[in-house]
Task: inverse folding
């Protein structure tokens, strides 16, 4: 398992091309209390399952609160961000397809190591 840190969150990569997966990537995301996420447009669908805690997920401008055991699907091409406004850490299982890219509002394209 590889561990990566970006934008105040920790990504624990379980499956990706670098670990032998051909089609899917999966990781556990840890979001610290008080973290404001960085909105980004995703190139692939993502499925999030909140394992613990509470998060606000905003997809194309629509915010929803996710609690442990709840899931959200982020459509390809949508703008997405998560915030942890609670006082405790949150943990999320995320699955997507190989090659996911994230485009920030600035136009910068991020190609996360845990999706290659």
Result:
């Amino acid at each position: 398992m590889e561990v990566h840190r970006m934008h105040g969150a920790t990504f624990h990569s379980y499956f990706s091309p670098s670990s032998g997966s051909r089609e899917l990537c999966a990781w556990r995301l840890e979001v610290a209390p008080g973290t404001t996420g960085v909105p980004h447009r995703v190139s692939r669908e993502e499925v999030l399952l909140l394992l613990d805690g509470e998060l606000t997920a905003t997809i194309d401008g629509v915010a929803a609160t996710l609690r442990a055991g709840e899931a959200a699907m982020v459509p390809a091409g949508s703008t997405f961000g998560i915030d942890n406004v609670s006082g405790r850490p949150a943990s999320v299982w995320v699955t997507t397809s190989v090659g996911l890219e994230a485009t920030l509002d600035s136009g910068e394209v991020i190609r996360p190591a845990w999706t290659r």
